[in-house]
Design a protein that fits this description.
130 residues, 3 helices
């Protein structure tokens, strides 16, 4: 998979892949989330895909289900130290499926990459002017 990252103006930085574009921006005049906020949101949305799939496979309604993601940062370094995902279910959600719902969310590929992070290489390449 390749993504093309470009700079459409101001503090905006966009990622293009396939037919999609992910827009990011920086305060104070942000028109989109920051790249880091998008990165953090990928944890909860990825877990959400697995929760949604779990419910759909069993014919369980997803109305009223949501995930509350809490980010805990070190006050000195600003680095994220812990991310909590709380799957909120309505009272009608079957109790017997709650542990399996948690296990399904834990299958998230983003979470697995946090646990075993990839190496990131950075290089430059001179290209001819367009």
């Amino acid at each position: 998979m390749e993504m093309l990252i470009d700079f459409p103006g101001g503090a905006r930085v966009d990622a293009h892949f396939g037919s999609f574009t992910v827009h990011t921006d920086q305060p104070p005049a942000a028109s989109a989330p920051t790249p880091f906020a998008t990165f953090l949101a990928s944890v909860g949305t990825c877990a959400g895909i697995y929760v949604l799939g779990f419910c759909q496979q069993r014919g369980l309604p997803t109305e009223g289900i949501r995930i509350l993601q809490r980010i805990h940062s070190n006050p000195f370094s600003g680095m994220v130290e812990k991310i909590d995902l709380e799957i909120q279910v309505p009272a009608t959600f079957p109790e017997k499926y709650r542990p399996s719902l948690i296990r399904s969310a834990e299958l998230c590929a983003v979470k697995k990459h946090f646990e075993n992070p990839p190496q990131i290489g950075v290089t430059t390449l001179e290209v001819a002017a367009a």
